Amino acid sequence: MSMIDDPAITALTRFLDVNVFRSELVMSNMANIDTPGYRTRDINFSQEMQRAGGNLEYASFSPVARSVRGLMERPDGNNVSLERESLLLADTQLSFNLGVQLLRDEFKGILSAINSGSGGSGS
Length: 123
Prior knowledge:
Elements: H1 7-31, E1 41-42, H2 45-54, E2 66-67, H3 82-119
Antiparallel strand pairs: 1-2
Helix pairs in contact: 1-2, 1-3
């Protein structure tokens, strides 16, 4: 197994991918706030992370967006709430930033192992 195939790095990469997908959905919802009949879409984050973790072929993984039920609908049939979407976007950005920091720490650990292995030989 190469260092890039490390399970922690793979999991963090998928975590970031699911966050990016969710951010795109939230932004799409926000962009369609005035579109008559538009239905808010979202993902079940934990369910998508489980699906991503069980998928050995990374290229074939794609999160599934679903309509969100139970939201207040306006007379034009649109159910997008700017407040809900703003909170989700902030939450997703914080989550993404955490994932980036954890991934950065993983790479720092790899770099440290490489540097400590090559510095002590004295050749």
